[in-house]
């Protein structure tokens, strides 16, 4: 009887011990293992599981692997407590993309913000450049208008019938250097142009509808200035001759 009882007790002990080992194996097998990647730390790993505050529990679960400095190494295997894994899984069910993008979104937002700031800076620079050009053009236009007004009221009328950039440059240079001869009286100078394909543009100047000057411009500002200043001299001398002729006729 005693031997039989001992055998039964031993069998129960073996069964109980086996059950405990099996349960322990199941627990160890079921625990989540995390392999440390480059750049990881306890807080970043905790953030991956939904809350940076989990780092303390992760540390406690791996106290035998991590020293007091909390330093972990690439390739190191850490045990993640079941509670943290369960919370992570619940969060994933509610929003499958939230954890995946948790650490990526700030970097993407920063990159997008940098690109947006760069585009805004380029737009502002281009806009300011356009505004400056418009202001400069407006100043030149006002000056030209003022010069034309003075010419009309004091020295007669000077008409602008140019269209191209070369023609407009010629006209502006002419006005900048033009001064009516004393006693010239009323007159009308007309500056017109006739485009000639592949050969520039033909400038014609008439005084009181009589052609006094004609020249083909070239796409060179220095040449345009030279021709315009020469045309001023031609018109000045023409008006002087007209005044002299008028005075001679009035003497008869």
Please name the defining characteristics of this protein.
alpha+beta; Membrane-bound Lytic Murein Transglycosylase D, Chain A; rod-shaped; signal; Curli production assembly/transport component CsgE; LysM; Double Stranded RNA Binding Domain; 8 helices; 252 residues
Task: Describe how the helices and strands are arranged.
Elements: H1 2-30, E1 32-35, H2 42-48, H3 55-61, E2 77-80, H4 82-94, H5 98-102, H6 104-155, E3 157-161, H7 165-177, E4 188-195, E5 201-207, E6 210-217, H8 221-250
Parallel strand pairs: 3-4
Antiparallel strand pairs: 1-2, 4-5, 5-6
Helix pairs in contact: 2-3, 7-8
Summarize the structure in words.
- The protein has three domains: 30-96, Roll (Membrane-bound Lytic Murein Transglycosylase D, Chain A), CATH 3.10.350; 103-151; 156-250, 2-Layer Sandwich (Double Stranded RNA Binding Domain).
- By secondary structure, the chain is of the alpha+beta class.
- The protein has helices at residues 2-30, 42-48, 55-61, 82-94, 98-102, 104-155, 165-177, 221-250, and strands spanning 32-35, 77-80, 157-161, 188-195, 201-207, 210-217.
- The strands form two sheets. It has a four-stranded mixed β-sheet with strand order 3-4-5-6. A two-stranded antiparallel sheet has the order 1-2.
- Strand 5 (201-207) and strand 6 (210-217) form a beta hairpin.
């Amino acid at each position: 009887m005693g031997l039989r009882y001992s055998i039964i007790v031993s069998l129960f002990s073996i069964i109980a011990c086996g059950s405990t080992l099996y349960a322990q194996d199941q627990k160890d097998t079921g625990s989540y293992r995390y392999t440390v990647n480059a750049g990881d730390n306890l807080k970043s790993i905790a953030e991956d599981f939904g809350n940076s505050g989990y780092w303390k529990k992760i540390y406690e679960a791996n106290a035998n692997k991590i020293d007091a400095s909390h330093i972990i190494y690439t390739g190191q295997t850490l045990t993640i407590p079941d509670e943290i894994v369960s919370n992570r899984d619940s969060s994933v069910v509610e929003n499958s993309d939230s954890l995946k993008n948790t650490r990526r979104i700030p970097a993407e937002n920063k990159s997008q913000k940098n690109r947006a700031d760069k585009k805004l800076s380029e737009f502002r620079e281009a806009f300011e450049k356009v505004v400056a050009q418009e202001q400069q053009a407006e100043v030149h236009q006002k000056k030209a208008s003022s010069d034309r007004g003075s010419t009309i009221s004091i020295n007669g009328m000077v008409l602008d019938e140019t269209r191209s950039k070369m023609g407009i440059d010629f006209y502006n240079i002419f006005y900048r250097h033009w001064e009516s001869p004393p006693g010239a009286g009323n007159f009308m100078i007309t500056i017109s142009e006739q485009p000639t394909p592949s050969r520039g543009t033909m400038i014609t100047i008439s005084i009181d509808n009589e052609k006094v000057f004609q020249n083909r411009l070239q796409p060179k500002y220095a040449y345009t200035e030279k021709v315009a200043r020469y045309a001023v001299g031609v018109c000045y001398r023409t008006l002087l001759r007209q005044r002299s002729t008028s005075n001679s006729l009035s003497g008869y």
